[in-house]
Amino acid sequence: MSKYATDEITLAQDVVPALRKGMLCLADRFFPSYKLWQAAARTGADLLWRTRQNARLDVGKRLPDGSYLSRIYASASDRRNQRKAIVVRVIEYRLQDVKDAEPIYRLITTILDHTQAPAKELAALYHERWEIETALDELKTHLRGAQIVLRSKTPELVEQEFWGLLMAHYAIRGLMHEAALKADEDPDRLSFLHAVRVVQRRMARYAAIPPRQRKVLYSAVLAEILQERVVSSRNRVNFRGVKRKMSNCNLRPRKRQRTRRVVVAKQIKIVK
What we know:
Blueprint lengths: L7 H8 L8 E4 L6 H9 L3 E5 L10 E2 L5 E5 L3 H5 L5 E10 L9 E5 L9 H8 L4 H13 L11 H29 L8 H17 L5 H12 L10 E2 L22 E2 L2 H4 E3 L2
Parallel strand pairs: 1-2
Antiparallel strand pairs: 2-6, 3-4, 4-5, 5-6, 5-9, 7-8
Helix pairs in contact: 6-7, 6-8, 7-8
């Protein structure tokens, strides 16, 4: 979190040190750079980032799954002199028979072993990156409340209030995850809005009862969260556009576009 004028790359540089071994970091094509990739890789986390189509990624070794090993450099001079290279694995693929799909997608990853993570699996996984937009919708619309602005009047208090909302979102998502594990269910099938309402109803009682009875109430909360299922948002495709033409983005049609469902994993064609 920073000032309005702070760009995304600067914010990413502040976030990267929080990565740890065992994590997988997904990022869009706007972010890959030698410096940021190097900093993120040093944390021990695995990286799977999309890169620009015009990025120079020479084929070093072709792997059986269609991906290949390449090297990235900090500068053209380093490339000419073959110094300070970072080895990456490149995955190039198309989405066959998918309307509005781009001609080709290019991913780079730190996972060099194709048997550990096949190209098709990584390509399908990358497309789940958009689910962060669902989390933002949960935070801005369902948790905070539609048309409700933050109450704070100073930057410091706005930041404090925002962190409070993030903590509340994390707590509710944590309950949903625990409930899903208990029922061996996909967390995407549970309703976030329903979970918020369950917590709101139970909160006052939880604070009023003796500590020894809270375990029973906690189990009841998890059971109630499981009572409502929704259709998973995974594989859902929506038209991307803006309401007002103030950028190069497409303009959103006045008539609401019907949501399409595409099983991305079945449409992936690795370019060899």
